[in-house]
Amino acid sequence: MVWMDNYRAGLSHQQQLRMFNQLDSHDTARFKTLLGRDVARLPLAVVWLFTWPGVPCIYYGDEVGLDGKNDPFCRKPFPWQVEKQDSALFALYQRMIALRKKSQALRRGGCQVLYAEDNVVVFVRVLNQQRVLVAINRGEACEVVLPASPLLNVAQWQRKEGHGQLTDGILALPAISATVWMN
User: Fold this and answer.
1) What is the phi/psi pair of residue 168, to 5°?
2) Mean pLDDT across the chain
3) Distance between the two ends of the chain, CA-based, in angstroms?
4) Exposure pattern of 128-159 as b/e (b: 16+ CB <10 Å)?
5) Which fold has domain 106-182?
6) Using CA atoms, how far apart are residues 41 and 37, in angstroms rounded to an integer?
7) Which neighbouring-strand residues pair with 37?
8) Residue 58 pLDDT class (50, 70, 90 cuts)
9) Of 62, 70, 72, 168, which is most buried, counting CB atoms within 10 Å of its CB?
10) Residue 153: its pLDDT value, please?
């Protein structure tokens, strides 16, 4: 996370918003394949893709769980048969697309990392009065005490995705989870 923060520090806000974010492409192994048996973490990457600054790029088939090793095996035909698609993953992509479309902060807002230790990263996207709080936990269930920040002065957070809880500045995050709140 430190490397990513240092890299972003050298970019203007507009450059950050134009970053081309992708999990995989026609030149790489599919992200699902890279995860191996740890596919429970795939939804975390999807939430990151749609909430981090930049333009999310979806390589065909990612939204339905297509796998594949390095080129040419990452270029399998799209699985048009519904029974061969991961419907839960597809639904997550649909929800995240709708959330990003609805939120100016996700599309054009600034980004401040609030917490990044061990297996947890928490950041907030901000545009004017809009706030989007994102918590990604790739480890065991845990609690995170948010730092005091004027960016978090929100009358009420509404959970839009995931199962984490936010109470009095403390995040309770389930194991291997991603949660998104908006004001």
Assistant:
1) 50, 45
2) 94
3) 25
4) eebbbbbbbbbeeebebebeeeeebebeebee
5) Immunoglobulin-like (2.60.40)
6) 10
7) none
8) very high
9) 62
10) 87
Residues written for the chain: 183
User: For the chain, which residues make up each domain, given as ranges?
Assistant: 2-102, 106-182
Using the predicted structure, report yes or no on whether residue 7 has a pLDDT greater than 90: no
Instruction: Tell me the whole-structure pTM to 2 decimals.
Output: 0.94
Q: Residue 34 region, left (φ>0) first, then alpha (ψ -120 to 50), else beta?
A: alpha
Residue pair 134/159 in contact by the 8 Å Cβ criterion = no
pLDDT on residue 5: 78
Cβ atoms of 123 and 111 closer than 8 Å = yes
Residue 128 in this model has a pLDDT that exceeds 90: yes
In the prediction, which pLDDT does 154 show? 86
Q: Give the sign of the dihedral formed by CA 97, CA 80, CA 37, CA 162.
A: positive
For the chain, the maximum distance between any two Cα atoms, rounded to a whole number of angstroms, is 51
- What DSSP string runs through 91-127? HHHHHHHHHHHH-HHHHH-EEEEEEEETTEEEEEEEE
Distance CA 24, CA 55 (A): 14
pLDDT digits (tens, 9 = 90+) for 35-57: 998 999 999 999 999 999 999 99
